[in-house]
Protein 1
Amino acid sequence: MQLFDTLRREDCGIAPLDGKTYRFYCCGPTVYGPAHIGNFRTFVLQDVFRRTLETGGMRTLHVRNITDVDDKTIRDSQKSGQSLKAFTDQWKEKFHSDCDALACLPPHIEPSAVEHIPQQIAMIGALVEKGHAYVSDDGSVYFKISSFPGYGKLSRLDERELDLGKTQNARASSDEYEKDSISDFVLWKTRRDDDGENFWESPWGQGRPGWHLECSAMIQEYLGDTFDLHSGGVDLVFPHHENEIAQSRCACGGNFAAHWFHITHLLVDGGKMSKSLGNMHTLSDLREKGFTPMEVRYVLIGAHYRKQLNFTLDSLSGAKEALHKLAKSAAKLAENMGGETSLPAADFGLFQPAWDALNNDLNTPAALGAIFTGLREASKLTGNEAAAALAGLNRILKALGITLPETSGDDSEVPADIRELAETRWSARSNKDWATSDKLRDQLSALGWAAKDGKDGYQLSKL
RNA sequence: GGCGGAGUCGCCAAGUGGUAAGGCAAUGGUUUGCAAAACCGUCAUUCGUGGGUUCGAUUCCCACCUCCGCCUCCA
């Protein structure tokens, strides 16, 4: 497939460096609260990326970290009176269940920062030894940016106002740490009172690793000094990924990531998502509003990953209908197959354009559009042609991570009292007692149920 | 101020130097006791504004307007 590379700023062919397994790393969540849909846009699109590679027959090695020690996790664990581990475990669990609900494949390896302190200390040691890092008077260790000429390439610092020299002069006086240069970033934070019990021993005294370092250390551990691709939200380009490049290349040699894949932030109702605006949706919030995780996923893949996606409740409703339409079409195809069985497809058939779209810079919205277009043709088919179409459809849906809702109403979960009302209504209706029938229909809908009448019976569905 | 992105039907959203995918909504019809559901159909001569290049631009160039994001932790 072709994918836009953030560093090279052009579409690049995606293929494993070692010819066997495509190895990629995604910056994972900081587990100090529930992840929001903005976070999930990134994780869902990374999931589609992986599924696309795998659907194309590639083997993958997907590594995604858990940040379980930083300022926020320490601060909020103390606020809640829990140990750091108990606190982060609970949010890690929540994250996993949300990911499952959104049909995101779990990464093959999910290392946590706390579990890789020795690796991080070792990397800092290497950087100090090679002259890329220095120890300040208080025992903190900083990366010396001036020692790495390639610094700023990913985020194109030289084309922005962030001239390093200028930044130093502008901020040197306001920073509490002693540093050679203000832009130097911290690798090891010396222990402070408000860290509580959250500190580790190191050659530079008690403290904890800096945030940027954990990814570099874990990447080195599981993917080595050169691997295929590194991904995250756009906000991570600078300084996080820039710092990772500096740390890893200086400490380990190697080229670090061959490609960079960044997902643009989403907007909510046309603006930035923020707590103060009350538009910080979590998956749980949306479920309470009656939307399914699959509907959320559908919305999240409904715009190209390099464009801002305008997330609205209306688009979620649209997703609900669109998924329903897909499910109906798939059911009709199955019906039209007659006695044929739908075998796993060797190709995409009518849905080849959708597959092509995915492979063209992961164009998920174009792929979705192509699915509906293909379905229009598919609906005319019968027998083994319908079977082949259904197989192609299932294959492309799997690549997108979409599972279809049930088309036939599930009557098994109807409460007894609702069932009774509906039965009464049906008999009234059968007796052409329209007044009673309509009255009971209103009652049912007030209770949240809709009765859909057919020739020989009715079906109940939740409103 | 610097950097970057974007303005395409009511909403969401693809796309292209050759005349606008798709979804939602809306709307007409079939069906229905009436609805709902289902099914069939309709739905941008036009792509922020003004110029320019071109046989031809929504797509390229210039100017302008508007919006958004980043530049501090952030997916």
Protein 2
Amino acid sequence: MRPLRADARDNRMRILSAAEDVFGQSPAASTDEVAKLAEVGIATVFRHFPTKVALLEAVLTQRLERLRDRALELADSDDAGLAFFGFFSQVVAESASKLAIAEALSASGTVAGDEAKAAGQGMREAFGSLLDRAQQAGAVRRDAAFPEVYALLVGASRGATATGLESDARDRMLALLYDGLRAGAGS
Amino acid sequence: MRPLRADARDNRMRILSAAEDVFGQSPAASTDEVAKLAEVGIATVFRHFPTKVALLEAVLTQRLERLRDRALELADSDDAGLAFFGFFSQVVAESASKLAIAEALSASGTVAGDEAKAAGQGMREAFGSLLDRAQQAGAVRRDAAFPEVYALLVGASRGATATGLESDARDRMLALLYDGLRAGAGS
DNA sequence: GAATATAAGGAGTCGCAACCCCGGTTACAA
DNA sequence: TTGTAACCGGGGTTGCGACTCCTTATATTC
């Protein structure tokens, strides 16, 4: 598999970025809306991504990988508690458009493909390691296991987005959550 | 507007119930799947609900009204804290199919119609009153305002559903949340 | 139990959006 | 510069699902 020609690579990136925008705003958007925004013919979109679902998955994968990288960066931080809670807050703050994409995928009835699944796995592992460190540092209570903490991460993102929470209310919501996660961490 | 004929009323209920089932499992389902399950012709579905969105809204409205009624019942309870947390847990436990429906609606790009909006409003008010009482009883901290608590309710439902949480993990998740909501309630 | 309004059913129609074809264009190598 | 393989564009095609027409059936009323 030879490297892509320069214009093709360029178009691919423009399509991905446009798709992120378009589907982020409305999961029901059509493929040529993406093509229009990317200033590219429809055929070009389908040449790069053989199906609409493939395009959605590519966008989702990209986002998950970005989150994983962010988590990995933070894993080296001195303050494990700050790293954990900071990551959590950031994910919730940026969740709006990512959610719409995941929604579009699940609405299309498709279970995520291999690539997206792997990206999700990587992201969860990185987050899990942040959680571990925060627990060892005494910043998060030890009896909080990964599944429920991860559900809270996803849930906080969705809840904030779905109810259209203002940023200050979102901060108060997170403060409530964090109090629950810290409760009795010292013991 | 005369009362519906008996068979029509019967069919209407069967359609609503079938729609709840079908859309609860897969938001992308087609209208005749609903008709099939309800053992009814497609035309009958459209006679009762002029559009697919109208059908989705009717299902959602019904669910929201049930939740509101449940909240109103609990408002008379002796133990305001138990009432609040009990309602919260129940909503989260039953959320799976309701969410799929709300998702289907938002995926179709439609903002909820008047009826569904009113039902949502009624439900939120009933929940708000449960929160008020729980706060006055000292079971929930006073600095938790409605928007963030409601976002947590929605978020916990979605998080639990989206991550496929087992029921015991769900209970632990709720326990974390409740600790956060109670923190310093005595002060 | 006959008349009639009301409802049911299911084979259509119609539009939309995913996906393909093929003639023209452009990056890259020699 | 020129050849050519890779790429692009945008008008078709096709399938699917929302919605309708019209004939037949059945509840209700007197």
